[in-house]
Structure prediction request, 253 residues.
Amino acid sequence: MQKKVKIKKLIKSFQRGSIVLSGWLEQMGISKSLRQEYVKNGWLTPIGRGVYKRFEDKVEWYAGLIALQKQAGFQVHVGALTALEMLGLSHYLRMSENKIYLFSPYKVNLPTWFKQYNWKQEIDHRQTSFLSYDVGIIGFNHKNTDFLISSQERAIMECLYLTPENMDIVECYQLMETLVNLQPDLVKKLLENCNSIKVKRLFLYMAEKANHPWLQFIDLSNVDLGSGNRQIVKNGVYNSKYQLTLPKELTEL
Prediction:
């Protein structure tokens, strides 16, 4: 009877398409031996060591992310282009994009089960502290699930962090052009917090080039833009105001 009560409680709290970790099951009063029994009886299916889904459920990458965020307490979030797509700000630019960008501080290493599971989409995990984890991250509801993603203000800076090696700089500018409603106070806080001179200069250059009205409401007096040239590409066009060597195709847009 007690086992039946526990499995009913588990199924009631275990949303379809979700993933649970052994630690969470322990908190639910489901011991290792009981988990093994549930697996044997076909109620749970392991997808990694100490990681389970409901039998015959299809699980998406964000189910794994939710388990990491909410059950394991990992500081990892959806960022860059993926966050902008989820916020409806870039879908027309890259309809076939299939890469999921996740960001975390340097110390956060994703567990083996998450890295090895076949999510049907490429996961690009970036470990960086160019921005603090407590600035510009918001809750997002997707298919009746909630997880953390970058705000549009933070996400565009993450795109600029990836350029030019891992994201086209012209595409970054095209994204910047769409961001007509950024919050000046949050942009200011992010710029003051950001420790990448490249990102800060590119952000301001692109915002000015796009002629965004919100830029005039940002106090830049405490934003450190560093000194010396930042060469984004070789043999490019030099912008003296922001001391950037930029691709010709960007400057001519």
The first strand starts at residue 19 and ends at 21. The chain has two domains: 2-54, 61-251.
